[in-house]
Amino acid sequence: MKILVINAGSSSLKYQLMDPDTGDVFAKGLCERIGIDGRLTHRVPAKDIKVVREIPMPTHSEAMTAVLDILVDEVNGVVKSVDEIDAVGHRVLHGGAKFTASCRIDDACKEAIRECIPLGPLHNPANLMGIEACQKIMPTKPQVAVFDTAFHMTMPPKAYRYAIPDEYYENDSLRRYGFHGTSHRYIADRVAKLMGRTDLKVINCHLGNGSSLCAIKDCKCQDTSMGLGPLAGVPMGTRAGDVDTTVAQFIANKYNKSIDEVLTIFNKKSGVLALSGGLSSDFRDLEAGAAEGNEKCKLALEKFCYEVKKYIGAYAAALGGLDVLVFTAGVGENGANTRAAVCEGLEFLGVKLDPEKNAQRGDERIISAPDSKVTVWVIPTNEELVIAQDTAELSK
Ligand code: ADP
Predict the structure, then answer these.
(1) Per-residue pLDDT tens over the stretch 337-390
(2) Whose CA is nearest to atom 13 of ligand 1?
(3) The CATH number of the domain where 32 resides is what?
(4) Which strands make up the sheet holding 49-54, listed edge to edge?
(5) How far is the CA of 108 from the centre of ligand 1 (A)?
(6) 139: buried, middle or exposed (CB in 10 Å: 19+, 13-18, 0-12)?
């Protein structure tokens, strides 16, 4: 089978054509600057092909046409015709409390995604544009929506409710939803396979540009660090993470800013970028800065690791113990120093890293010492594979 996985943003559209059974990626790429001018970057991993083309993309529709054109291109393509594509899977940010699993896209599903726009005002409209562009160009292909929030819908009320007046939950659905659900689900399933059992208490640290932790028991989400939106939890590349809301009130009042303007600061100008004095949101730059003695870079890294460590402690308590700790995503998979700093001092929880294994590069691997009570893994995440597998399953 060949599944086209689409992740549409407001001015971008990422794609992967892949085999849901083997995980092989035939081609992948990115359309950028949609609505501005338009650029397509296309790769065929097996042939080491990389093509960059400037193509006018006034809307997502032209972007999708450009994607299909290059997929069937005689030189750079990977299929003879669009008929070879079996179905299309879409990453959708917010499924609200309605979607506890992926769903085949029909009018009702699209309407439900539209109803979730107040909860995901930036992403859901873009996701819908991607869906509608595909429907227009490939009207007969099965399309499936895979929600970033769905995996978290097993959280109990004590984890997802905010302690604010009831009416905001009853009338406006304000609650913790959590994100990166497709990644956390991939890791939960993968850990069960690797450990040969499902009855495990797992904490997954998805540490990338955006970061979230997830407490998982018996393969189901019990709690997660992001909330109604993706701003909550640990500090991130440019997002503040948990901040006392009084800080927002203070900045708004003193600097005459609207709540939207303050949240833009918390979303785009905060996190490790802010703590490093504006140097960088990229952990490689921060590590280089810290190695040269830059105190702000050191603080940014320390703060990040400290907050991740605190969530691990909290989730171990919430789960009533810990069997497996996982690091995934850009920083989690590659940042050996970050992993070491996060795990330092967690021996009382039964976490003992093997420094040599932690320092080695590689794919899926155990980095804890043989006598560590908690097994610590590095597992590269694969959200696209989950989307492709759900899409294959639901388009049968
Ligand atoms: P996104 O949330 O955009 O998907 P990624 O999961 O790709 O992000 O993670 C991007 C982050 O991973 C960047 O901050 C980058 O610095 C970090 N990263 C990548 N390689 C390394 C490395 N070798 N060491 C430390 N951090 C790394």
Answers:
(1) 999 999 999 999 999 999 999 999 989 999 999 999 999 999 999 999 999 999
(2) 282
(3) 3.30.420.40
(4) 49-54, 39-44, 25-32, 13-18, 3-8, 87-92, 143-147, 103-104
(5) 37
(6) exposed
For the entire predicted model, the pTM comes to 0.95
Point out the ligand 1 atom lying closest to the alpha carbon of residue 206: 6
In a domain, 240, yes or no: yes
The residue range of the domain holding 63 is 3-147
Question: Side chain identity at 173, as an amino acid letter?
Answer: S
How far is it, in rounded angstroms, from Cα 126 to Cα 192? 34
Sign of CA dihedral 312, 318, 322, 323: negative
Distance 81 CA to ligand 1 centre (A): 35
236 CA to centre of ligand 1 in angstroms? 11
Atom number, ligand 1, closest to the C-alpha of residue 210? 2
The reply to whether 354 belongs to the active site is no
Residues 137 and 234 placed together within one structural domain of the fold: no
Query: Can you tell me the distance from the alpha carbon of 16 to that of 44, in angstroms, rounded to the nearest whole number?
Result: 10
Which position among 48, 83, 86, 148 bears the catalytic label?
148
For residue 59, is it left (φ>0), alpha (ψ between -120 and 50) or beta?
A: beta
